[in-house]
């Protein structure tokens, strides 16, 4: 393998060096070598595929200009690439659905972009779905709907399989089945040495555990084998309220969250201020109920009685219809986004403080920008997590997230600022940080704070692994050192949170 690679590297440098300039970078050398091995899978600047792949991101701030886009079609392609990156020491990044709005986490200018678009198989074997990281959730749900099954995963269709599952994965089916990662029975993963391994309860069990929440520090996952569960048509959609209904909505959310909720139910609350884009201000409650009922189940009835309800799309429908690819009619890549989250025990008082801080901070952001303010959107999401979500991992051998030890339900509040004009990137990122620090202070002051940072909702400077508990953090590091002693995925890979 190594000799072949070196031969190809020397062979390809000369003819292609003109295209890149006289002295290619290490990353360009890797691209040329990959092109020599797999010409159909390597795309250079100027090709339509390169243009499309470098724009497959949720946040426009993540668009990149890599040295090339490598689209492996098999695990063997990935294995060759990892050995090459190791040998030539080139920087690379991995992208699945591109939805993590952390610039650099899924692509970097000048690095090799390994995008999983061609690893897009979905195969069913008994009650297990084999899913490639090149799928988005809508791709998967359209297929599972046809056989009356579901894989517990993302709540927005455009999100990728790869990042969501490796970071944990919160689904509408969370109360019954836990995190998405808890439903993985086997990861096919290419580790730093280029080996294609299976990680499951019997083979490489330590790696299996680490991949359940550990993100991209351990290898490149080329296939996820996940448990499926029967699901027919569901009941769900969105209730949209006037902005002034927010206190009543939050009061109802707290009641819903505090009770031992019906495990078939799940909600998300979005508080949206899109005035600067002309879409107004409103509160949206996304409801999901995993049975084909035709009228609101008791757990949801109070939401239908809150004054100020202005739109209602809640009906019985196939699951894949509930999770459209482009929420709010804005497809991925139109806006840039930055987000940050805070986690606390259910508390009506903290929920209220969080929404007050949101409104105060948005107001002061607008005032400070004055006539320089650029169009954008401010969104505060409340995600009530159930006890079932945090407890389920214990049935399946545990995960790295460290929530099983923390009893009871919890609230994740996620603040997102979105914008059109890149000159506001730094300003909006800093403003989100300041706001969420205030929200954290409020939850601390109320004695409700939970020092847990969800990787899939983290800002660039947050430290999710450290928040998974000392024992889990150290165990993750030990597994990392065992499978990647030279730090290929920590040093050569760009992006990912520090471990
Ligand atoms: C609109 C929207 C809705 C969302 N809804 C949910 C939700 O319902 N539940 C939830 O839990 N989260 C949700 N998220 C958060 C989401 O889980 C994260 O953003 C996740 O990282 C996205 O995965 P991706 O594959 O699209 O992203 P990517 O940016 O492609 O990947 C994220 C990270 O994982 C790494 N990675 C990706 N694939 C692989 C692989 N095969 N092997 C190794 N590393 C890999 C990448 O290097 C990157 O660092 C949502 C995000 C958005 C923007
Ligand atoms: C790029 O995307 C556009 C729009 O989706 C599509 O029409 C075009 O065929 C794509 N080009 C390639 C080379 O995939
Ligand atoms: C972006 O913002 C800058 C600085 O406020 C401004 O000068 C520029 O005109 C804006 N660009 C667009 C396209 O609106």
UniProtKB/TrEMBL annotation:
UniProt keywords, alphabetically: FAD, Flavoprotein, Oxidoreductase, Signal
Cited InterPro entries: BBE, FAD-bd_PCMH, FAD-bd_PCMH-like_sf, FAD-bd_PCMH_sub1, FAD-bd_PCMH_sub2, FAD-linked_Oxidoreductase, Oxid_FAD_bind_N
Domain of life: Eukaryota
Molecular-function annotations in GO: FAD binding; oxidoreductase activity
Signal peptide segment: 1-19
One Pfam match: FAD_binding_4
Start and end residues of each FAD-binding PCMH-type domain: 62-231
Keyword NAD in annotation: no
Family indicated by similarity: Belongs to the oxygen-dependent FAD-linked oxidoreductase family.
Protein name according to UniProt: FAD-binding PCMH-type domain-containing protein
Record organism: Dactylellina haptotyla (strain CBS 200.50)
């Amino acid at each position: 393998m190594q000799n072949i690679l070196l031969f190809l590297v020397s062979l390809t440098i000369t003819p292609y060096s003109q295209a890149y300039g006289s002295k290619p970078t290490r990353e360009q050398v890797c691209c040329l070598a990959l092109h020599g091995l797999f010409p159909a899978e390597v795309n250079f600047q100027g090709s339509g595929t390169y243009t499309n792949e470098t724009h497959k991101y949720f946040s426009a701030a993540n668009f990149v200009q890599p040295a090339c886009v490598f689209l492996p079609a098999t695990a063997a392609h990935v294995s060759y690439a990892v050995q090459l990156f190791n040998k030539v020491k080139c920087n690379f990044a991995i992208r699945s659905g591109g939805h993590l709005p952390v610039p650099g986490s899924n692509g970097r200018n000048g690095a090799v972009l390994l995008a999983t678009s061609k690893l897009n198989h979905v195969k069913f074997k008994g009650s297990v779905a084999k899913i490639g990281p090149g799928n988005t959730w809508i791709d998967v749900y359209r297929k599972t709907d046809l056989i009356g099954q579901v894989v517990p995963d993302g709540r927005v269709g455009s999100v990728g399989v790869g990042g969501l599952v490796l970071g944990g994965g919160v689904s509408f089916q969370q109360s019954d089945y836990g995190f998405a990662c808890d439903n993985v029975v086997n990861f096919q993963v290419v580790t730093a040495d280029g080996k294609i391994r299976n990680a499951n309860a019997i083979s490489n069990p330590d790696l299996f555990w680490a991949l359940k929440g550990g993100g991209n520090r351990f290898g490149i996952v080329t296939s996820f084998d996940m448990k499926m569960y029967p699901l027919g048509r569901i009941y769900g959609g969105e209730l949209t309220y006037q902005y002034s209904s927010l206190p009543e909505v939050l009061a109802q959310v707290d009641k819903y969250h505090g009770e031992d909720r019906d495990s078939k139910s799940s909600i998300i609350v979005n508080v949206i201020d899109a005035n600067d884009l002309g879409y107004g201000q409103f509160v949206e409650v996304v409801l999901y109920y995993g049975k084909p009922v035709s009228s609101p189940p008791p757990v949801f009835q109070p939401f239908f009685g809150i004054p100020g309800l202005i739109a209602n799309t809640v009906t019985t429908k196939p699951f894949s219809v509930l999770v459209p690819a482009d929420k709010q009619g804005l497809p991925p890549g139109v806006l840039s986004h930055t987000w940050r989250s805070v986690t606390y025990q259910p508390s009506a008082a903290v929920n209220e403080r969080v929404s007050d801080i949101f409104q105060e901070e948005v107001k002061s952001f607008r005032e400070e920008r004055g006539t320089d303010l650029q169009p954008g959107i401010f969104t505060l999401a409340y995600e009530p997590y159930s006890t079932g979500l945090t407890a389920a991992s214990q049935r399946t051998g545990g995960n790295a997230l460290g929530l099983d030890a923390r009893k009871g339900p919890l609230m994740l509040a996620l603040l997102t600022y979105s914008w059109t004009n890149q000159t506001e990137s730094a300003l909006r990122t800093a403003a989100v940080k300041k706001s969420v620090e205030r929200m954290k202070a409020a939850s601390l002051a109320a004695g409700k704070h939970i020092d847990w940072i969800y990787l899939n909702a983290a800002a660039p400077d947050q430290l999710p692994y450290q928040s998974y508990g000392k024992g889990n953090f150290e165990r993750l590091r030990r597994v990392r050192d065992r499978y990647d002693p030279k730090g290929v995925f920590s040093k050569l890979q760009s992006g990912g949170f520090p471990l």
